[in-house]
Amino acid sequence: MPRPWIYYFGNDKADGSSKLKNLLGGKGANLAEMVNLGIPVPPGFTISTEVCTTYYDQDNQYPEGLKEEMQANLAKIEASMNRKFGDLKIPLLLSVRSGARISMPGMMDTVLNLGLNDETVQGLAEAAQDERFALDSYRRFIQMYSDVVLGLDRTRFENLLEEEKEKSKVRLDTHLKAENWRSVVKSFKDYVLRVTGKEFPQDAMSQLWGAIGAVFNSWMNKRAIEYRRINNIPSEWGTAVNIQAMVFGNMGNDCATGVAFTRDPGTGDKKFFGEFLINAQGEDVVAGIRTPQPINIAGKTPENQHLSSMEEVLPECYQTLVEIYQNLEKHYRDMQDIEFTIEKGKVWMLQTRNGKRTAQAAVKIAVDMKDEGLIDKKTAVLRVDPAQIDQLLHPTLDPKAKQDIIAKGLPASPGAATGQVVFTAEEATKCYEQGRKVILVRLETSPEDIHGMHVAQGILTARGGMTSHAAVVARGMGKCCITGCETLQVDQEGKKFMVGKHVIREGEFITLNGSTGDVILGEVPTVEAELSGDFGKLMEWVDEFRTLKVRANADTPHDAGVARKFGAEGIGLCRTEHMFFEEDRIGAVREMILADDREGRREALEKLRPMQTGDFVGIFREMKDVPVTIRLLDPPLHEFLPHSEEEIEQVANRLGYSVDRIKAKLESLHEFNPMLGHRGCRLGITYPEIYEMQARAIMEAAVDLVQKEGYSIIPEIMIPLVGHVGELKIMREVVSVTCEKVLKEKNTELKYLIGTMIELPRAALTADQVATEADFFSFGTNDLTQTTFGFSRDDVGKFLPVYLEKKILPRDPFVVLDLDGVGRLVQHAVDLGRKTKPQIKLGICGEHGGDPASVTFCHEIGLNYVSCSPYRVPVARLAAAHAALAEKKD
Amino acid sequence: MPRPWIYYFGNDKADGSSKLKNLLGGKGANLAEMVNLGIPVPPGFTISTEVCTTYYDQDNQYPEGLKEEMQANLAKIEASMNRKFGDLKIPLLLSVRSGARISMPGMMDTVLNLGLNDETVQGLAEAAQDERFALDSYRRFIQMYSDVVLGLDRTRFENLLEEEKEKSKVRLDTHLKAENWRSVVKSFKDYVLRVTGKEFPQDAMSQLWGAIGAVFNSWMNKRAIEYRRINNIPSEWGTAVNIQAMVFGNMGNDCATGVAFTRDPGTGDKKFFGEFLINAQGEDVVAGIRTPQPINIAGKTPENQHLSSMEEVLPECYQTLVEIYQNLEKHYRDMQDIEFTIEKGKVWMLQTRNGKRTAQAAVKIAVDMKDEGLIDKKTAVLRVDPAQIDQLLHPTLDPKAKQDIIAKGLPASPGAATGQVVFTAEEATKCYEQGRKVILVRLETSPEDIHGMHVAQGILTARGGMTSHAAVVARGMGKCCITGCETLQVDQEGKKFMVGKHVIREGEFITLNGSTGDVILGEVPTVEAELSGDFGKLMEWVDEFRTLKVRANADTPHDAGVARKFGAEGIGLCRTEHMFFEEDRIGAVREMILADDREGRREALEKLRPMQTGDFVGIFREMKDVPVTIRLLDPPLHEFLPHSEEEIEQVANRLGYSVDRIKAKLESLHEFNPMLGHRGCRLGITYPEIYEMQARAIMEAAVDLVQKEGYSIIPEIMIPLVGHVGELKIMREVVSVTCEKVLKEKNTELKYLIGTMIELPRAALTADQVATEADFFSFGTNDLTQTTFGFSRDDVGKFLPVYLEKKILPRDPFVVLDLDGVGRLVQHAVDLGRKTKPQIKLGICGEHGGDPASVTFCHEIGLNYVSCSPYRVPVARLAAAHAALAEKKD
After folding, report:
1. Is there a contact between B721 and A790 if contact means CB atoms under 8 Å apart?
2. What's the pLDDT at B467?
3. Which of A434, A673, A793 has the highest number of chain B CBs within 10 A, making it the mutation to test binding with B?
4. Contact B543/B860 with Cβ under 8 angstroms?
5. DSSP at B264
6. How many Cβ atoms from other residues are within 10 Å of residue B302's Cβ?
7. 20 to 30 A Cα–Cα from A293, which one of A416, A825, B509, B563?
8. CA pair distance A547, A877, nearest whole angstrom
9. How far apart are CA A36 and CA A16, in angstroms?
10. Is the pLDDT of residue B815 over 90?
């Protein structure tokens, strides 16, 4: 028998289950699963994702047999609800919702109350004994359907509603009466006729097909594509459509609707956490138009304590809900995000899914559930997404800093953020491109704002609750977010917001504390993240499963210290050029560059050497007994010279050179493509005295600590930008001769390694040859990406955004390692390098070393370690554990 | 039995033969071979190249057993000559010469008259009945030995000789008497004692070992290394040492010495061609110190007709020599370069080897020998070195141009050259690096001048004959050269030369005609090379053996015409950007760049379109019925904008824009690394309208010629700088939609191909993916070399010379394809591309397409064609034939 297109659920029996998530989407699979668990769910059916993919494969044609299956399943719903679709007396109304494999909040469109028309609305009114409710539902339906299916501008309907309110001198929707709603319905329908030239569709079946088509089409709308791009979701997955009998949370005060999490999605605390609204439809809660009430007494905060909780006003329903949520969490062994509606005292579950959570919550929930025996250690480790924990690793506000708190909102997504105020996503993007940090301030956010939220440091909205669009999306992104800050008056046109006596204009700085909801004037200093407690526990488990070592890129003793705190097992990249820029030595560096001959350069280098030795002593001391890889000088020399007229003059005066001499040197050092120019080991080859000085400084520092303080150090000296084994051979000779000289002078022995960056395609392609002269390889994937793609990282801004928009590239290759191109090259180099030297030490020190997907790749090809920025070390550790566990599973 | 270290030859019997060239070196093998042929050769032996390599492998220690073998072989010589080495009465004297596999003229050191000392010199005087001769020989020996073995400055000896001449008021060496020579010998020996603290070695055996060591050591001297670098000779080959009984050309007027070629090495004419000197040693001829006499009457020229030929003065010896040379040429089936000495009427052959020749001579000799039945067609093709024929393809002096001839010398190496006068190799190199063309003017050249000769356009010397150092080396290099221009007074210190009333200073232009010996004042225009006659015949044979197609890179109808004339079978790369720079269109190009939006760009592009169409009509017409690959716009747009203040103002006025607008655009287009920036298909993706215009122009041009003139054209449209298949997919869509539109408008059908450059490592690494969207690949090895090495071609001058000097890179990878790196990548891409599309058309259009070694590689990996500059097309054709023949041999 061929697989059906449609899967029914209802009355304790479902065709599907949570196992069919790819076919039914997350929502459909969970609805089926809930039914199987005996949880009350309005009956309905799921049109599978295969229908969506077939629909797109067949140029927007539905597959054969779909219509018949739908008729049959619709009949089952009618039987179960004892109502008939399109019936004039007791009409069955339907909701139509999308549901992809992975929840895409706000991305896909939904139609509620489908089946209403000029006649069935009367039947609903009679059945519910509430004409006002029926007409309100009808106008909601017209509005939604016109927006989602007919593609009309939603704000025009809102304006028509505002007109009615003004005419009736009423401020709130709830104060409108049945006659008002009738008038609104008429004006809505008139508007549809005027704009589309056709009457609003009255046939229920046509409405249903229209809505299904709209869901499928919305899979390819711009917002959905954008969301998938950001979240790496392939468009081939498709969406399912869930069609379900409507139940009503807005049929009176014994009705309600709400959303809840089985644990606190912000902190991970084990407490039932949610919001609801009496006499409302689900959309009202999520859209953040009314500030919702807490679901229980425990959920009360200073901000919402004036509102009654469901525990208080609907205690029986609350109790049912508690039983259901406990049942669900036990079943799914994960924190659930549920939606429910109460229709005349009966609780209906509309949805359950694994709840999105902050990184902090993810860690706490994973650790707690392990401790509760719900999950094992491996599962706990796998529960925390490496991409997410970054937010735990960044500084929070310095508690000792003075904070001028000007407003308080809901702590929707924790962390701290400082930036310049902007009011639109466009402005946020523009500033981001200029390298500025911004806080996006909105009345409320909508899916159109996604790209702005993506680039902002933090998000502040005047409206919306903890489950509003802004809150959910920000938590998913790991961004600091404050919602429902109702004292804010946002004047988007005027590019300012007012709060109390303050007027904050675009470009002014504010600071958000996403953990408290505090909005603070100006910039506030921050302190480092705490890495103890649950996080520490989890990271201990992580290290039990991980086989890939994690080092850090650190150039100073301070960074080295941070790196160790974050669990770094060594330094994979210590860039010596940063040391050259420091105030007390840049003068000597410039003397060296401006010298006319080797002797002059040596003289200047001798001034630098004691300082370099000091640098290395500091770093070795900090990294005591773990390996440190030091890269010799890499950037082109002109980077160390002044460039502006003023600076040139200053430097000339300080060094006692003529301005012309400096300018002449600048001229002679000018390059058309400095990225491909005189840098890296090319400097070492033309000016070996530089590398000699550095090698001496490294060895003297190491020997000193070994001799006087009993350290055990094996310095790893790294030659940059090697493309040909001949370069490495000469540099190895220069460095090792110097090292041996130092050892002889100090009358001691010390093991040291000399290796190379693999950051040019030629080095990778000839890694078998390069390996003959290298004790280790470190893949410099930043440069390797530049040369493999032929992309200058500094110039890519002119076309890379277009590439991402047009989906030519799935992701920014400077962030996520390009496996097809650069990855193949790295793999190739690993194979060749090991062919020559099976035991060669292999690592990566590009920024990809801290990207989870790239870490997985590094694990798979068998590197010894990744090295990344200190703050990304725990991310890499977790990603490495995930990779090791995934491998075991295979 | 182990292989001996030493091989004897003499008395019609030799241990070796020409088959043992690798072991005995060219000179040793040919001496053995001559002995086997019954030709009179002074007896001697060859110390094999294995001794040299063993010597270097063992840290300058001779192998065991060598000494014993030498004693034995020395005894054989003594027996054959009936003289004893070191004997006081009839001393045997020896020559010690180097001899590598390939002749390295002037590169290796030689010692003559070895065995002379204060006592044996008396024996020699008595044996020769000529004290003056014996003392002259002795002083020559001291001078040579001191220079070569003891490392003393040769000019100091020359000065001592000059002192003696001044003291004796004598101008020529030949006028010095025995007593003068005795005094010179004394002053030489005193000088040696003074400088070295030791007496000049008197023991013959010590002298011999010293000389052998000097030969081996000279293999690693700077000049030898430089020569090997330029000529791609591996240092592992080593040199042999030839030790041979001395015969004397300077024992009186029945003695002579000379060098000759069995055919004219300049023109290839089948005539015995050579020079000799009566009463002289071989070194006197080669060093060019005395202007030598022609060997025969046929060799007389207006310049040397006052000198008697050997045919006239030593007719019997001449006849013997003629018989010997005919014997040798018949045996070796190639033109021979021979050295001989006549001692008291007896002809001794000192050397024979395949003669170096100009390209013109190589072609003529190959064709003639084929016609004479000496060699077959294949051998004829293989006899001409592809790297050499370049010189046949360059312009010669325009015969109609006025020529102000200021001097006439020997036409030592044909061709024409114009450049600024320089007087030292250093200055030549300096000017070359500044991109200036120079003529190197010297009194005479020496091996120290090699690097200067290499970079000069041509060489002019005041002294020396057709076989002088300058002449031999220049012919080998294929450089225009005039020697023996004795009217020149060269004042190197004063940086000028005088000739008649003219004073030519450094930096002034002169022109050389290497085919006539004319030295011409100023710059003279040139005309293209003739490609008919023998050359045409040879190239026909070439095409019989070749399987690789050869196309040309040509951007204009004129270049296309030249390319066809040179035998191009299509255009492999037509760069459209050069068209954009032309005076009549750069304005529209700039309008396009400065436009604010797509509409503005389209408007400007519409102005360009008819001109582009015209460009393509012209090129298609010229290439009628052979394929043309057109590359769409590639360079970054800022290249088309003015950059200087003055130009910016002009352009602003002309286009009616503000200066600020142009500056703002320049600012926005500025890139840090334009090579890796917004260019190639990245332009096509961000501004598809540009590629649309170009695609339309190509198709309209093609359709027009097909419809109106019955051409059969299959345009090949090439997308540049693709790194990811997604780029090609989008560009293919843009181009093919445009092409189809044109075809629909014109109501016709036309096949066209859309392909891509493979010029980024990522494209090569993912060629399997790229091939899905490509009808052909063209390897852009210029850019591929840049990105694979991470070398900016524009900036590489700062370190590449050091790389070549330090032998990190064997050759400039922009000239000769780097097989280990870039070659592996190309090979990989070929494999991947064919995996996806077995029939995909593959070519190369980097400058390597005209380099013989790279062409061989392209043949080996099975490319369909190479494309190179029109002038290199015959080089590529010949190289392709060589590659095909080499393959058959395997």
Report:
1. yes
2. 64
3. A673
4. no
5. -
6. 8
7. A416
8. 9
9. 9
10. no
Dist CA A90 CA A414 (whole Å): 47
Residue carrying the six token digits 């079946």: A205
Active site residue B469: yes
* Cβ–Cβ gap B726/A799 under 8 Å: no
Q: pLDDT (tens digit, 9 = 90+) per residue, A506-554?
A: 999 999 998 788 999 999 987 767 777 899 999 999 999 999 999 999 9
Kindly indicate whether the ipTM for this predicted assembly is greater than 0.95, answering yes or no: no
Rounded to whole angstroms, the maximal C-alpha distance in chain B is 103
Residue B775 has pLDDT above 90, yes or no: yes
pLDDT tens-digit series, residues B25-63: 988 998 999 999 999 999 999 999 999 999 999 988 999
Contact B727 A808 (CB under 8 A): yes
Q: Taking a C-beta distance cutoff of 8 angstroms, is the pair A498, A508 a contact?
A: no
Q: How far is A220 from chain B (nearest CA, A)?
A: 19
Q: Which residue, among A574, A580, A682, has the nearest Cα to A631 in the 3D structure?
A: A574
The backbone torsions φ and ψ at residue A416, rounded to the nearest 5 degrees and listed phi first, read -130, 150
Distance between CA atoms of residues A596 and B593, nearest Å: 44
Angle among Cα B640, B645, B647 to the nearest 5 degrees reads: 45
- N-terminal to C-terminal alpha carbon distance within chain A: 31
| Contacts of residue A745, Cβ cutoff 8 Å, sequence gap at least 6 | none
Whether residue A723 lies within 8 A of chain B, CB to CB, comes out as yes
Find how far residue B178's CA is from the centre of its chain: 46
Closest residue, chain B, to A804 (C-alpha): B726
Closest CA to B612 of B698, B735, B719: B698
Per residue, the 3-state secondary structure of B710-741, as one string, reads: CCCCCCEEEECCCCCHHHHHHHHHHHHHHHHH
Structure confidence at residue A358 as a pLDDT band (50, 70, 90): confident
10 Å Cβ neighbour count for A831?
13
Whether A727 and B808 lie within 8 Å, measured CB to CB: yes
Q: Do residues B245 and B313 touch, judged by C-beta distance below 8 A? A: no
- Mean pLDDT estimate for chain A: 90
Residues, chain B: 890
Task: Give the mean pLDDT of A405-417.
Answer: 85
**B531-572 pLDDT, tens per residue?**
778 999 999 999 999 999 999 999 889 889 989 989 999 999
Predicted confidence band of residue B370 (pLDDT cuts 50, 70, 90): very high
Write down the pLDDT at residue B222.
Answer: 78
Residue B551 β-bridge partners: B867
Task: Provide the 3-class DSSP secondary structure of residue A424.
Answer: coil
Nearest-by-CA chain A residue for B791: A676
Catalytic residue chosen out of the listed positions B52, B431, B454, B469? B469
d(CA A545, CA A556): 30
Give the pLDDT of residue B447.
66
The alpha carbon of residue B192 and the mean position of all alpha carbons in its chain are separated, in whole angstroms, by 40
CA distance B619 to A76: 73
Q: What is the mean pLDDT of chain B?
A: 90
Stated length of chain A: 890
Alpha carbon distance B655, B696 (integer Å): 26
Chain position carrying tokens 């001034």: A607
Query: Angle of helix A178-196 relative to helix A131-148, nearest 10 degrees?
Result: 20
pLDDT at B239 > cutoff 90: yes
Ordered DSSP codes for A156-198: HHHHHHHHHHHHTT-SSGGG--HHHHHHHHHHHHHHHHHHHSS
Cα–Cα distance, A760 to A779 (Å, whole number): 9
In one letter, which amino acid is A444?
E
Q: Which of residues 651-710 of A touch B (CB under 8 A)?
A: 671-678, 682, 685-686
**Is-contact B16 B46, C-beta < 8 A?**
yes
Token pair of A539 as six digits: 């990271």
Q: Which residue of A has its CA nearest to B764?
A: A821
